[in-house]
Amino acid sequence: MRLLKRLSKFTDIFRPASYPTYSVASMEKDNLSDFNITKEDLKTAYLSHPIVNRALHFRADLLVARGFTLDFSDEKTKNIIDDFLINIKNNSPLNADLKTILRNACIDCDVFGNALYHLIPNKAGNKIVKLSPLHPAYTDFQRETRGAISLGEFGEPIGYVYMKDTPYEIKYPRVEVAHLIFETIGDELLGIPLLLPMYKTIERLSNIEYAIAQGLYKHGLPTRDISVGDVDHPPTADDINTVSEQVQDLDAASQYIHPYWYDVSTIESQFPMNIQSIPEFFLDQIIVLSGIPRRFLSGDEQYATTAQALQRNLSLVLEPLQARAKSWVEEQIFDPVLEKEKCDGKVELTWRPVLPQADPQLVADIISLSNTLVEGKPLITWKEAREKLKMPFETVEGKETTLAALSKNDYTGLYLVEPHGELIWRNRKRAIVKSVRFAAHLGEPLYLLSGKLCYGVIILDSPVEIDLKEFKDLSPKHLVSEEEREQWWPGKKKLFYYHVLIDKKFETPRKWKYVRGVQNFVLKVEFE
Q: What angle do CA 86, 91, 92 make, to 5 degrees?
């Protein structure tokens, strides 16, 4: 019995101070092995495909484009961080400042899932003077022989290891490495690359592009079919070999002179129809996963949208990334820098808005000036007002846009011939067709007007150009008859299709002051 008590004391001595804080799954290899994808594969996808490369650069550039501000708890903290920022720029081979480091870290996270920077102190060891990037393709957590991540007595990873072009492993303590992750699952310790869910799509798209290129080559340079000899001139093996060598390097400009008992023809390859539309399905998936509007990746203005919709979409993508980058800089870079110099101050990083915003007081003042009349004229014109707000001088079908919508829900109205407004209200009609491509009011709330009634608020998506066949195919969605098309747009071969999103439906349609002759947009909607 005494022996058992003594043995129990030994087990208490060897028991860890606390249990590991991570699950077994979180300590194994990263997710790439489950998909038979390597980090080198991700690197190749990033470097080789133009849309992918542009999307990742655009995300990283936009994340830091507007910059940030730093707020310090006291003057000592400010001096330490200012000195640190000067040192990391001067000690960088590329003269990279913190903004550049954040941009590059964003690309590392998107490509490999992780961004890692080594915090290097000076020789005296009393201050951090350099941030050195560790290539995420060759850096990993220190691991046990069986492959699990090595944990300390409190269940935290003990450090990192670099394994590339060195005769031995270079190990770094965990506290010396700033590790940024954008996406992860559960309590897994390694990040998930943005490229991982789109990698197979990129691979298939690359194969399709190669096949299209081969098809074009074969169509321009078809395979030749050469028969050697006839009944009176039976070919020998040497004859066939000789002809094979003669035609081996023929191209489209070559001439081949041969005896009459040689028969030369071509094997025509079938050229695929609508070849330009084949990659679109795969490109759409890549663009959706990147979160970047298509107009920025393809340069196609048919996907243009309003500044308000653009800001909303980009903010949804970038703000979560900026929040993670903010925590990374504050907690894993600035805090260790201050701790190394025995300073208990704090630094707060604040991102500037993704897109510049007008000062609300400035907007209110300008609206007041534009509504103040002197001898029947406003103090400032709409052009002067838009110039002060740094807004484009856009017009809608020759009519001036108003400023009141900047401060309240005074929406522009979209007028549709009866009964098309009611059809949208009843959820039977999901799109509209117009003969013009609208340059404004896309992606913003619009009153749905039809006849003398307002049915609610809708949002128009970016236009898609369609031909008459596509008009007919899409008729179940837009519900415009052939008779209406011929009456409204006689002779038009190209039309524009707008998907409609219902933002708000009025339970009972409201009456508005109908204006005769109205077409498309109503800039000032007045209700009865």
A: 105
Q: Going by C-beta distance under 8 Å and a sequence separation of 6 or more, which residues neighbour residue 344?
A: 338
Rounded to an integer, the average pLDDT of 29-58 is 82
Q: Residue 330 in 3-state DSSP?
A: helix
Q: In what order do the strands lie in the sheet with 177-180?
A: 128-134, 115-121, 177-180
Give the C-alpha separation, 53 to 527, whole Å. 50
CA dist., res. 485 & res. 474, Å (int): 13
Q: What is the dihedral of CA 403, 405, 407, 409, to 10 degrees?
A: 160
Name residue 180's beta-bridge partners: 115
Q: Residues near 257 by Cβ (< 8 Å), separated by ≥ 6? A: none
Whether the pLDDT of residue 435 is over 50: the answer is yes
Return d(Cα 320, Cα 182) in angstroms, integer: 8
Residue 308: per-residue pLDDT: 54
Query: Which among 278, 145, 158 is positioned nearest to 209, based on CA atoms?
Result: 278
pLDDT tier at 149, thresholds 50, 70, 90: confident
Q: What is the pLDDT of residue 165?
A: 67
Sign of CA dihedral 179, 182, 188, 194: negative
Q: Per DSSP, what are the bridge partners of residue 224?
A: 266
Give the integer Cα–Cα distance in Å for 149 and 187.
13
Give the C-alpha separation, 458 to 310, whole Å.
17
CB atoms < 10 A from the CB of 102, how many? 22
Q: Residue 122 corresponds to which tokens in the numbers above?
A: 């000076």
CA 55 to chain centre: 5
**Least confident stretch, 150-159, 184-193, 213-222:** 213-222
Given this model, what pLDDT does residue 324 score?
93
Shortest CA distance to 417 belongs to which of 452, 464, 463? 452
Residue 262 pLDDT exceeds 70: yes
Alpha helices in 401-474 (DSSP H): 420-425, 468-473
User: At 265, which amino acid appears?
Assistant: S
Whether omega for the bond prior to residue 476 falls within 30 degrees of 0, making it cis, is no
Q: Within 13 A of 411's CA, how many CA atoms are on the CB side?
A: 21
* 189/300: higher pLDDT: 189
Distance CA 481, CA 290 (A): 38
- What would the 3-class secondary structure string for 223-285 be? EEEEEECCCCCCCCHHHHHHHHHHHCCCCCCCCCCCCCCEEEEEECCCCCCCHHHCCHHHHHH
Q: Tokens for 237?
A: 């093996």
CB 305 within 8 A of CB 295: yes
Residue 192 has pLDDT above 50, yes or no: yes
What's the rounded Cα separation, in Å, for the pair 473 and 169?
63
* Statement: the pTM of the whole predicted model exceeds 0.85: no
Mean pLDDT, the chain, integer: 79
Q: Is the dihedral of CA 484, 486, 487, 490 positive or negative?
A: positive
